[in-house]
Write a structure and sequence with these properties.
This protein is an alpha+beta fold and 178 residues long. The protein has six helices and five strands; from the N terminus they run ββαααβββααα. The protein has one domain: Beta-Lactamase (2-Layer Sandwich).
Length: 178
Amino acid sequence: MRPSTITQSGTNRTFGDDEVIVSKTDLQGRLTYVNDVFLRVARYEEHEVIGKPHNMIRHPDMPRAVFGLLWREIQQGHEIFAYVKNLAADGAHYWVFAHVTPSYHRSQMIGYHSNRRLPHPSAVEAITGVYAQLVAEERRHSRPKDAIDASTALLGQLLADNNVTYDEFVWSITKVAV
Ligand SMILES: Cc1cc2nc3c(=O)[nH]c(=O)nc-3n(C[C@H](O)[C@H](O)[C@H](O)COP(=O)(O)O)c2cc1C
């Protein structure tokens, strides 16, 4: 049995830059499939994760506003790219650059799918500062709804101050091979 709360170890885990962490969920965000890279990096056995909510690997440093944006986009049938810090079962954390999309069967949305690559350290450094500001804003509010509203507004403000959309910001910190 796993402890119900995971103690953070502070260890940053990476994975191969030729590897992809894959998971699929139903429409409620419960895991229906994970690949072997997911299990190895998150330190779970398959039977421990299938059917569980995807927030089982949620890290407390992740702003609610980012997941709010993710769910708004995918529920509307859009795809989204996001930097995510996850918590492994052994307390280590690992950063991913995720591409999350709806899955369809005969034109019906049946769930969601996420493919994740290892982010460049410079992107992690850039996003860490932004997420820290959003989480600090969230912690000023005791009600979850107020917290997400406030950090969603702050994210919008930070993007507007830099005259960029969310997608433009994400790609501006992302290094891709050319
Ligand atoms: C396909 C898919 C992949 C997801 N991947 C992650 C992930 O890697 N880490 C994570 O914390 N949440 C992920 N989420 C979001 C979670 O469902 C959840 O919204 C998030 O962990 C916040 O949980 P909370 O609302 O309980 O705070 C994913 C959702 C979907 C649909």
